[in-house]
Design goal:
eight-stranded antiparallel beta sheet; disordered N terminus; single chain; 3 helices; 221 residues; alpha+beta
């Protein structure tokens, strides 16, 4: 019976994954480029930065000006009005993505709308979040579900486009209200190890043999 229980424990071990944890995080501090402040095992962050259409603004948070005054995402893309960040996951240690959390705000003349796209290994996975009413009265926190993206290795790249500013001096910034000065957090969990073909049947067979031996050992001689 002990052998059978041990076999069952092995099966459970193959199918179990770790709890969601921070894969990479960035502090909402100012700079031309901000390195990751936290990285999980097997993960390397690549810096929070700006595209060439934006200018670093003054202040304590990751603050940018030069935003497009157009009315849609296409105009922001054409004008290189983007903030980006990401991570690389080791090929031998895949993760299931779980969520993106981001804290942001704008000035009174800053961009009123934004959208975030996700790229995995250079392939556009589409728009994962949009906000058509960015507030200018305190920071906003968005929690974006990423659970559709499983068993991920390689590069994971996020691009935030924003538009609708009423002045090129209007600003948009990544704030730091997520705790420990964090402005962006990407979470995930270790991908479950798949069961090798035929392993469950083999383990059940071993359990049956163990039970038969136990019965025989209890039979009177």
């Amino acid at each position: 019976m002990k052998s059978f229980l041990a076999a069952a424990a092995i099966v459970a071990g193959f199918a179990t994954s770790a709890q969601a944890a921070t894969l990479v995080a960035f502090d909402g501090v100012n700079g031309s480029s901000v390195a990751a402040s936290e990285e999980a095992a097997g993960v390397t962050g690549f810096n929070l930065g700006r595209s060439i259409g934006l200018i670093q603004n003054s202040g304590n948070t990751f603050n940018s000006r030069g935003w497009d005054e157009g009315t849609d995402k296409a105009s922001a893309l054409a004008n290189n009005n983007a903030i980006f960040w990401g991570l690389t996951i080791d090929a031998n240690a895949p993760y299931d993505l779980t969520a993106l959390e981001i804290d942001y705000d704008r000035s009174g003349t800053g961009p009123t709308s934004l959208a975030i796209d996700l790229f995995i290994n250079g392939q556009n996975q589409g728009e994962i979040f949009s906000d058509p009413t960015v507030l200018d009265s305190g920071s906003q926190t968005a929690l974006v579900d990423l659970t559709a993206f499983k068993n991920v290795t390689g590069s994971v790249f996020f691009r935030l486009l924003a538009w609708g500013a009423t002045s090129s001096l209007g600003t948009f910034d990544i704030e730091n209200d997520l705790g420990n000065n964090r402005g962006i957090i990407v979470t995930g969990e270790v991908s479950p190890i798949p069961l090798p073909a035929g392993l469950p049947l083999m383990l059940l067979g071993l359990g049956g043999v163990a039970a038969l031996r136990m019965r025989k050992s209890r039979s009177p001689s």
